[in-house]
UniProtKB/TrEMBL annotation:
The active site is at residues 109, 360. It is found in: Cytoplasm. Its EC number is 2.1.1.192. Belongs to the radical SAM superfamily. RlmN family. It catalyses: adenosine(37) in tRNA + 2 reduced [2Fe-2S]-[ferredoxin] + 2 S-adenosyl-L-methionine = 2-methyladenosine(37) in tRNA + 5'-deoxyadenosine + L-methionine + 2 oxidized [2Fe-2S]-[ferredoxin] + S-adenosyl-L-homocysteine; adenosine(2503) in 23S rRNA + 2 reduced [2Fe-2S]-[ferredoxin] + 2 S-adenosyl-L-methionine = 2-methyladenosine(2503) in 23S rRNA + 5'-deoxyadenosine + L-methionine + 2 oxidized [2Fe-2S]-[ferredoxin] + S-adenosyl-L-homocysteine. Binds 1 [4Fe-4S] cluster. The cluster is coordinated with 3 cysteines and an exchangeable S-adenosyl-L-methionine. The keyword 4Fe-4S applies. Its cofactor is [4Fe-4S] cluster. GO terms for cellular component: cytoplasm. Specifically methylates position 2 of adenine 2503 in 23S rRNA and position 2 of adenine 37 in tRNAs. This is Probable dual-specificity RNA methyltransferase RlmN. Reaction proceeds by a ping-pong mechanism involving intermediate methylation of a conserved cysteine residue.
Length: 368
């Protein structure tokens, strides 16, 4: 079994860091931070309960604390991390895409999707992306910087507050699922992303208390980080953005494949499945006349059969000016049939958000 290596994917230098936020810290670190402010350590649990349990970032609502304490804690541990630029909605308001401006002017996106049985938040882990996949709007923009743990968590909390206030059609609700499928490659921002996952799955007052099994982590296949994530023993779903079963094509569609090829990436995925017991989701964006051939479906089926994997076929959401476009319905149906023939479970992803610049990076690109 290969050992995890040292990752070399780093964000470009930045002039300053986001301000320290409660969500950046473990509960023990919050106690230390509160004590440094001259407050009793138990205030950390109170503050955490308000933030994660009651979804409150308004000191006026923290009536179990003296007014002076509220102001001191809010200023030191709950700085504003994001400013709303705009929201656009579709599906009668059940799908809402938000564009946020961070402290340094960086733009990031998050999407809230409400279904009859769940509410899913799609969050960004980086501003832009350095993986350079040519059919992806974020990949075309390049990488600006990594997001902090707090900036990632705040995307979820912003959606959770909107739901709790009944601002999303369907009445008050709660976020039940998180997918790290927004802007960026999550495993290239490993430390902050794993910290965010822990804040999201830890029970209140340490975190938001979402089931780890309801969190999906996507990756284009950073093999050392995939092995490292397995050793975290957090049973999130791993979503591998494969997009081609052969190295010749995948080298073009997912350039990181020139470093870790299809076989290495799948071996890391099977290791993750073996350690966590979680079925691996294989993401495959169907692109007309590029990767939607019958022989590629057959090869993909042969590579995945007898493994605990599920294929998520994604009708490509074309980006403006791109030569890439979605496969025909006939090609899509044939692809599904050939995978099913190999006994590989397959579904076609819901295309929510297509009419609101739903592909990652489209809304931010339109704002620039």
């Amino acid at each position: 079994m290969p050992k995890p290596g040292e990752l070399t994917f780093t964000a470009p230098p930045r002039r300053s860091k986001p301000p320290r936020h409660l969500a950046d810290l473990t509960l023990a670190e919050r106690r230390e931070a509160v004590a440094e402010l001259g407050e009793k350590p138990f205030r950390a649990a109170q503050l955490s309960k308000h933030y994660f349990g009651h979804l409150s970032d308004d000191p006026e609502q923290w009536t179990d604390m003296p007014a002076a304490t509220r102001a001191r804690l809010a200023e030191a541990l709950l700085p504003s991390l994001m400013t709303s630029v705009r929201d656009i909605s579709c599906d009668d308001g059940a799908t809402r895409k938000s564009l946020w401006k961070l402290f340094d002017g960086t733009l990031v996106e998050a999407v809230l999707m409400r279904y009859p049985d769940r509410v899913t938040m799609c969050v960004s882990s980086q501003a832009g992306c350095g993986m350079n996949c040519p059919f992806c709007a974020t990949g075309q923009a390049g990488l600006t910087r990594n997001l902090s743990t707090g900036e990632i968590v705040e995307q979820v909390l912003a959606g959770a507050r909107s739901l709790a206030r009944g601002e999303v059609p369907g009445g008050p609700g709660r976020v039940s699922n998180i997918v790290f499928m927004g802007m960026g490659e999550p495993l290239a921002n490993y430390k902050a992303v794993v910290g965010a996952v822990r804040r999201l799955v830890d029970p209140s007052p340490e975190g938001l208390g979402i089931s780890a099994r309801s969190v999906t982590m996507s990756t284009v296949g950073l093999v050392p980080a995939m092995y490292k994530l397995a050793e975290e023993r957090i049973p999130v779903t791993l979503a591998l953005s494969l997009h081609a079963p052969d190295d010749e094509l995948r080298n073009t569609l997912v350039p990181v494949n020139t470093r870790w090829d299809v076989r290495e990436v799948l071996d890391a995925a099977w290791h993750y499945e073996g350690v966590t017991g979680r079925r691996v989701s294989v993401e495959y964006a169907l692109i007309k006349d590029i990767n939607d051939h019958g022989w590629r479906a057959d090869l993909l089926g042969r590579r995945l059969k007898n493994h605990n994997a599920h294929v998520n076929l994604i009708p490509l959401n074309p980006t403006p000016g791109s030569k890439w476009t979605a496969s025909t319905a006939e090609r899509q149906e044939e692809f599904v049939r050939l995978l099913t023939k190999h006994g590989v479970p397959v579904t076609v992803r819901d295309t929510r958000g297509r009419d609101i610049d739903g592909a990652c990076g489209q809304l931010a690109a339109a704002e620039v």
